[in-house]
Write a structure and sequence with these properties.
single chain; alpha/beta; 4-stranded mixed beta sheet; 57% helix; elongated; disordered C terminus
Length: 200
Amino acid sequence: MGTAYATLGTQPGIVCNIGTGSDMSFFDGEYLSASLHGNGYVLGDEGSGAWFGKQLIMDFLYGTMPRDVAKLFEEQYHVTKEVVVKNVYQKDRPNAYLASFVPFMDQNRLNPYIDTLLRNGFDEFVRTHIMTYPSYAEHECNFVGRVAFHFDMQLRDVCELHGVNVGRILKSPIKPLFDFVIQREMDNALTVGNFGAEFE
């Protein structure tokens, strides 16, 4: 609800969270619909930090990552199969571990391999989630989360390709949510004040 208020106020539209994980819901201006998405990093989270981290690790371990990128990746993270297995299968919050590779993507966002990976991930998100709503093209679609915010260029391009009407893309909903709450309280105070004035 906080994300919905921060991006849409009281207008209807689609709300997406793309950070460590990913999720989306439809907001009718008052209520947030129960989400059928956001099934976690094992069964979903398309386009999220965990999803991208998983793709990076797979490409690196399978040797399908371009050599120049693989060299930079190895120098920065010293990744081995043993390290990955330990962090993914034996430690807490494996999704956070996978998402920890997002800064590498940010540093190399213009590399063709990274750029393609980002576009493929966002395309998967849009097709799997947003486009499952029959009337998605009629509503504004808003995004919140570090991944959406830092890679907004690729996200906007993919959304435009599929006819998704992008609204706001926020790193965090806190400040806009605070502004919304303050404005609503002020509006309520004015309404109460005007109502009382009629009886003076």
